[in-house]
Amino acid sequence: MQRFINLSEEMRKGPDLVTPGLLSCQGCGTALAMKLALKGLGERTVVVIPACCWSIIIGTYPHSTLNVPVVHVPFETAAVAASGVRAGLDVRGEEDVTVMAWAGDGGTFDIGLQSLSGAAERNEDILYVCYDNEAYMNTGIQRSSATPVGAWTTTTPGGSLKQEPKKDMEGIMLAHGIPYVATASVAYPDDFFEKFKKAKGIKGTRFIHILSPCPPGWRIDSAKSIQVTRMATQCCIFPLYEVEAGITRVTVRPEEVIPVSRYLRSQGRFREMGEDTMELVQVLTEQRWNSLLERETSTK
Predict the structure, then answer these.
(1) Backbone Cα Rg of the chain
(2) Could you tell me if residue 251 is left (phi over 0), alpha (psi between -120 and 50 degrees) or otherwise beta?
């Protein structure tokens, strides 16, 4: 994975709470995401992990690659289990501990959505993080509702790519009226770090959606995972922004917006996508980006 430059001095000096021994694939985005997240949150953190890639990445029981307490829970229960951990800590008077649920897109967009919605409706004091690699990667690259239009997965019938758009998780979480919703990318570590630092200081349900590259699932060279992920923001397919107390702010603006086709063609999973579909994705991406900019302007 490429070396980062221009990292803030605060991030460089922050605690490194991820130790050697991760069982992730080469170029895995979520391994780096956890490292950056814990740098922003610090040692007073409990991590709640449902069934996902991180159930494996963290290491073989009884060992753990994280230097913070970890609770493993069933697939659909990340948010409600985190709520329980929060309640227990409050009884003990440990209100300074951040409880972070850390789930994949399958456990967030699909299987865990019910408990997440319940926790958000109650405005539980938890940080819920979805590391989104856009399919059920841990179990063999199956389609999820986070899988984008035109992508190949192992459950894609021959000649029939995914036609349905990716679920709008930010919109769903904002509809609950929670105090903080943000997107983040491992390709922009300073922006990532600042959002986790900010989320740490907010009470109530916070939701951060991370774009996390998966070289085997995306069919990319592991050495280019950060480069490809950065292109997702440069073409505005995955814009980086935050909504705090109803105020929308775009946190990373591409200096030069690149064509969506450049991002799509960099990945083998879109190899079968036709030009018509690629053009449609371009139009939809521009519409969503312009809508985001309008929302930013209207909420200032």
Answers:
(1) 18
(2) alpha
Q: What is the pLDDT of residues 199-213, one digit of tens each?
A: 999 999 999 999 999
Across the strands, what pairs with 98?
A: 45
Q: Which two tokens stand for residue 71?
A: 């609770």
Pairing verdict, β 240-244 and 247-252: antiparallel
- pLDDT in the model for residue 211: 98
Whole-number pLDDT of residue 299: 83
- Determine the CATH number of domain 9-298: 3.40.50.970
Of 187, 206, 174, the residue nearest 292 (C-alpha) = 174
Geometric angle at alpha carbon 167, from 109 and 189, rounded to 5°: 75
Closest CA to 146 of 211, 241, 222: 211
**Strand-pair partners of 181:** 207, 243
Distance CA 112, CA 249 (A): 27
Q: Are 15 and 39 in contact (CB under 8 A)?
A: yes
Among residues 228, 222, 215, which one has the least CA distance to residue 266?
Answer: 228
Contact 21, 66 (CB under 8 A): no
Question: Per residue in 33-57, pLDDT tens?
Answer: 999 999 999 999 999 999 999 999 9
Determine which helix (DSSP H) or strand (DSSP E) holds 46, and give its type and residue range.
strand 45-49
pTM of the model: 0.95
